[in-house]
């Protein structure tokens, strides 16, 4: 009985189902629901209603973050944090359009955002916080484990390495597609796909080393 449970837990299909479940968690956020009919304050991160672009307001104009990596590298709270906790302020489009664009926050090395308040402790344990900050790491680890499982089950095939990489790349791409078009608040990301592929590559290297040590010959 115990052996059967172990076989199920290490089966690629079971692992992929776990990954798919985690990747398809809707991203619930209050961002954009509350719209301010006023100019942002100096030091505010803001966006226009209905626009995904996020900007930093200096008092003279706005600087675009450009990418999520740029946004987080400057010490900002997670994407869905409330404005009162130092998050992004959503303002009317007409007001946002009046603010001149001065450049990119990271490319021009503009001084980081002014912190307006402390984020609630609950934010650090929220699903959104984990999705924002640990996406790349979780993708890498998840697909490393999936790849090891695939390699083990395909260990007698000569093309196990190429087959594993192709499978991981395809199934990872399928989930990115599903996130983009079917999951609220989630979007496809080539960075996630790269993390998936890197997890597969490291898994292949690890499996090759273990094979050379004849580890799998001891496993029935």
Which key terms come to mind for this protein?
220 residues, alpha/beta, 2 domains, 6-stranded mixed β-sheet, 6 strands, 9% strand, elongated
Output the helix-strand order.
HHEEEEHEHEHHHH
Main beta sheet: strand number and arrangement? Answer: 6 strands, mixed
Overall strand count? 6
List the domain count as a whole number.
2
**Strand percent estimate:** 5-15%
In short:
This protein has helices spanning 2-9, 12-23, 68-73, 93-97, 127-133, 135-153, 160-182, 190-212, and strands at residues 35-36, 45-48, 55-57, 62-64, 89-91, 101-104.
What features would you describe in this structure?
Helices cover 47% and strands 9% of the residues. With 220 residues, it is α/β, with parallel strands linked by helices. It has a six-stranded mixed β-sheet. The protein is elongated. A hairpin with a 6-residue loop joins strand 2 (45-48) and strand 3. It is built from eight helices and six strands, in the order H-H-E-E-E-E-H-E-H-E-H-H-H-H. The protein folds into two domains: 2-27 and 134-218, no CATH class; 35-126, no CATH class.
Layout of helices and strands, plus pairs?
Elements: H1 2-9, H2 12-23, E1 35-36, E2 45-48, E3 55-57, E4 62-64, H3 68-73, E5 89-91, H4 93-97, E6 101-104, H5 127-133, H6 135-153, H7 160-182, H8 190-212
Parallel strand pairs: 1-5, 2-5, 4-6
Antiparallel strand pairs: 2-3, 3-4
Helix pairs in contact: 2-6, 6-7, 6-8, 7-8
């Amino acid at each position: 009985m115990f052996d059967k449970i172990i076989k199920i837990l290490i089966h690629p299909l079971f692992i992929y189902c776990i990954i798919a479940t985690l990747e398809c968690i809707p991203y619930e956020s209050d961002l954009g629901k509350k719209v301010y009919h006023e100019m942002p304050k100096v030091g505010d991160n803001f966006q226009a209603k209905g626009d995904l672009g996020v900007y930093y307001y200096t008092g003279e104009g706005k600087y675009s973050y450009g990418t999520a990596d740029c946004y987080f590298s400057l010490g900002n709270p997670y994407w869905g944090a409330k404005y009162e906790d130092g998050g992004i302020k959503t303002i009317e489009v007409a007001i946002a359009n009046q603010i001149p664009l001065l450049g990119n926050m990271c490319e021009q090395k503009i001084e980081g955002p002014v912190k307006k308040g402390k984020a609630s402790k609950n934010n650090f344990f929220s699903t959104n916080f984990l999705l924002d900050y640990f996406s790349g790491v979780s993708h890498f680890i998840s697909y490393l484990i999936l790849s090891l499982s695939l390699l083990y089950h395909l260990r007698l095939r000569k093309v196990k390495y190429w087959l594993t990489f192709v499978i991981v790349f395809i199934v990872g791409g399928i989930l990115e597609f599903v996130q983009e078009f079917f999951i609220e608040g989630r979007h496809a990301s080539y960075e996630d796909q790269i993390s998936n592929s890197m997890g597969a590559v490291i898994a292949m290297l690890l499996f090759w080393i273990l094979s050379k040590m004849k580890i799998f010959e001891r496993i029935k």
